[in-house]
Each structure stands twice: as C-alpha cells, then as structure tokens.
Amino acid sequence: MTSSQRRTPLSPGTAQLDLLATGESAIDATFATAYRIQLDDTSWVEHVPGWLSGGQRLLEALLAGAGWEQRERWMVNRMVVEPRLTAEYQDVADAPEAELRTAAAILSRHYGVPYDGLWLNLYRDHRDSTGWHGDWSTCRRDECVVPVISLGATRRFLLKPRTGGRSVTLTPAAGDLVVMGGRCQRDWRHCVPKQTAPAGVRVSVNFSSRLQATKPSTT
Ligand SMILES: O=C(O)CCC(=O)C(=O)O
Ligand SMILES: [Fe+2]
C-alpha cells in the first residue's frame, strides 16, 4: 500500500451502533466501522466490516429462493460459461428478501444515490470467481458509488489501476460491505479471484442505480 492509499477511519470508534432490526439480521446504519482507502486522487473504496450482522438466514434464503441463472458471454471469439451464478433484480421491489430493500434504502440515504436495483453473484466454492472488470453497464457516469455486501465465505476482493500497477487487497467477510466510489469503475478494475484454498459458498449483493447507469445529458 502506498502513502496515497492510507486507510482512513470515517467515524469515531466510540460511535454508538444504531442497529436497525431487519428480520433476523441487523444493519449498522451509522457505518461506525467504515474506513476508506483513497486509491488515487479521484477513486476510493470503503470497507465496512460487520455492516450486516446475523446474515446467515438471509444467505440461506437467497441460496434457496433467488432466481439464479448460469450466464454465458463472448470472450474474443468464443462463448464462455461464467464461473459463478447470477440473479438480477432490475427493480429492488422484486428482490426476494425484505432485508435487501432495507439495505438499499440505508445505502441510498448514506451515499446519496437512489439504489433501485441489484444483482447477486453466487460463488459455489473457491473455484468460482469474477475476473478483472469495471462495472460498465451499471456505471455510465464518470463517478459512481457501487456498494457490495458479502454473505457466506470470506473471499479476496482485489482492485488494481486500469493502466496496471500494484493491486489493493480487501478480504470482506460475511456481513461486510465494500463500496467503490469516485472514478473507480473508470480508472480501476476489480475482481474476486479463484483460490486454491477451499472455500464454501459466498453470495455478493451488488446495488445498482438507474441514475448511475444513465449517461448525464450534455445539453
Ligand atoms: O462478488 C463481488 O464481491 C463483486 C462482484 C462484481 O464485481 C460484479 O458482479 O460486478
Ligand atoms: Fe463488479
């Protein structure tokens, strides 16, 4: 980590946890544990350990009830099967668990972005992954704020500059929130790499906003 990537706590450690009960889980609406890594002058990532506590029931409900699909995509000149499953809800009202709508509302208020959709990734084990990418389809603006909740197994979440260079490693555990902001989707890439160490199932909840997915008008 370079000096420009200091980890800065965002709230005093003495902040009271304001836990909002949502089903059997609870969300820290004060973001008391949040710290920010300034990736460069215009890009940042925040990690909020333990943002959602008691998420085991939510994980199990999503595994059983989300609309999981196996997607394929063109890579150069061949179709490849994505190494994970995905469930997408373009309208958060259709999301299967009320906790996800509560989370969207709390994130919208905190980051000032109306999160109205989400997609879920299911990493069945340590062999599943998401390759290096920027969230282009959901971020058409120069600056976007993209929150991701982790449920289940702890996996590594890496970021590296688009032009190359050293990567920054986060290890979000169950209930942790990772939020990418500023020009992160433009100037940085992120991934969840495969690993050799065995890992159980992980679900990530990625929030989207029609506002961020729309280019600002130039007139
Ligand atoms: O699973 C994660 O933590 C991130 C997934 C991701 O970056 C994506 O689906 O765009
Ligand atoms: Fe992404």
UniProtKB/TrEMBL annotation:
Pfam families: 2OG-FeII_Oxy_2. The keyword Oxidoreductase applies. This is Alpha-ketoglutarate-dependent dioxygenase AlkB. PANTHER family: ALPHA-KETOGLUTARATE-DEPENDENT DIOXYGENASE ALKB HOMOLOG 3. PROSITE patterns: FE2OG_OXY. It comes from the Bacteria. SUPFAM superfamilies: Clavaminate synthase-like. The keyword Oxidoreductase applies. Residues 114-213 form the Fe2OG dioxygenase domain. Keywords: Dioxygenase, Oxidoreductase. GO terms for molecular function: dioxygenase activity. InterPro entries: AlkB-like, AlkB-like_sf, ALKBH3, Oxoglu/Fe-dep_dioxygenase_dom.
